[in-house]
Amino acid sequence: MPHVLVIDDDSDSAETLAMLVATEGMTVATAGSLRDARRQIALQPPDLIFLDLVLPDGNGLELLEDTRSMPQTEVVLVTGHASLDTSIQALRRGAADYLVKPVAPQQLQKLISRISAPCPLQHEAQELEAKLEKEGHFGALWGRSPVMRRVYEQVMRVACTNVTVFVTGESGTGKEVVARTVHDLSRRRARPFLAVNCGAISPQLIESEIFGHEKGSFTGADRQHQGFFERASGGTLFLDEITEMPLDLQVKLLRVLETGTFMRVGSTTVQQTDVRLVAATNRDPMDAVKAGKLREDLFYRLNVFPIALSPLRERAEDIPLLAQHFLDQISKREGQRKQFAPAALQRLSAYKWPGNVRELRNMVCRAYVMATDTLIHDACLPGDPVQAAGVSDKPAVPSLTIQVGTALAEIERRVTLATLEHLGNHKEKTAAALGISLKTLYNRLKEYAALPDGTLANQTAVEEGH
């Protein structure tokens, strides 16, 4: 029978939580100080600890260091104030989750059910490592480079916790694949994984899409609608391009993260949520904060466990492996096996891949189609990889002079518009060159069009019909 230790100097709070735990069929003990807690742990090592941070003889964070020698023990922070700094510090030190007092019975039941479930990694870690060495992939993530091995290590450390993950990296580096891998290796794998691109939903609809709405709450709301938080219940919600979320909605998202509750649009009923959140952005998060695109308090709440993905150009040793993987996929799908000539792989490895893994995958698909026989050689590759290896007749890229002290938002605007003009108003190439998604580029151009000096943005928007 699982054993639980409740550590809280408030005896009433400790006894109430102990009674709730006992109803879940577990044995439970209580402690009112660090000293009492250490004595209880020595008498009977617990499977689960509910830990209050403010104790008479010290900070509960000290106990987290002690529990590192007990890998089978999970620690859940219980706080009466939802202190952002201390909660994040506890999660980074190894706490599996945190609850806010008073603890609701339903919320406790879900947490215990989730934490007591076996973590898939306990059974699959050796298999994943063997496939990495033999085949070159860790789940759906491919690559043997040191930077990718670091990502795999981070995924393995965080997957079985309920900690919020913040994935950063250029467009096309595989942020959603990382989120999916975290979900697939977690205790939530049997529940839904939902991915939401915050930049692809209209600002007028994004709140109702994420939190849901009641019938009649606004024009066109002819029925009740469950949002992503409800549909992902028990599972993982991936919020991509989080910096494109409207600031007023970021405030509501922060409240969900701190309290585990939300309300549908047009409702006064508080809903409990049990969702693991993974957020991502292709911007530098601190630049987004300075530019007013991301609330600073939300950034620190999301950035509990950061995972940074390197661009493909910084792990060039993975390019042949990735290219072969994509070629094997399309060969299987199309029913005809083709292979790369050595010179073609060399050309692919020489290219800088501004669109990263996504661009490489698309390039391999085009090369497969262009190959007239089973061998993919230099002539099958479109122009850019060839030009990257030195065969280029393009004029030199123009430079842009920016004065020291120019606001980051203004620098971003000038670089974006200058790149768009240099590339002949080609949106896809511009987005790839800037390392952002096409949707993000359109959003930026709409913003620039509203500025007094947004002539170029207005002009290009009209030319492209947007």
Automatic annotation (TrEMBL):
Where in the numbering of this chain does the Sigma-54 factor interaction domain appear?
141-369
Record-annotated Response regulatory domain positions:
3-116
Q: Which residues carry this modification: 4-aspartylphosphate?
A: 52
Output the Pfam families linked to this UniProt entry. Answer: AAA_lid_14, HTH_8, Response_reg, Sigma54_activat
UniProt keywords (A-Z) are: ATP-binding, DNA-binding, Nucleotide-binding, Phosphoprotein, Transcription, Transcription regulation
Q: SUPFAM superfamilies, alphabetically?
A: CheY-like, Homeodomain-like, P-loop containing nucleoside triphosphate hydrolases
Tell me yes or no: is Repressor among this UniProt entry's keywords.
no
Q: Which domain of life is it from?
A: Bacteria
Q: Which InterPro entries match?
A: AAA+_ATPase (IPR003593), AAA_lid_NorR (IPR058031), CheY-like_superfamily (IPR011006), Homeodomain-like_sf (IPR009057), HTH_Fis (IPR002197), P-loop_NTPase (IPR027417), Sig_transdc_resp-reg_receiver (IPR001789), Sigma_54_int (IPR002078)
Q: What name is this protein filed under?
A: Sigma-54 dependent transcriptional regulator
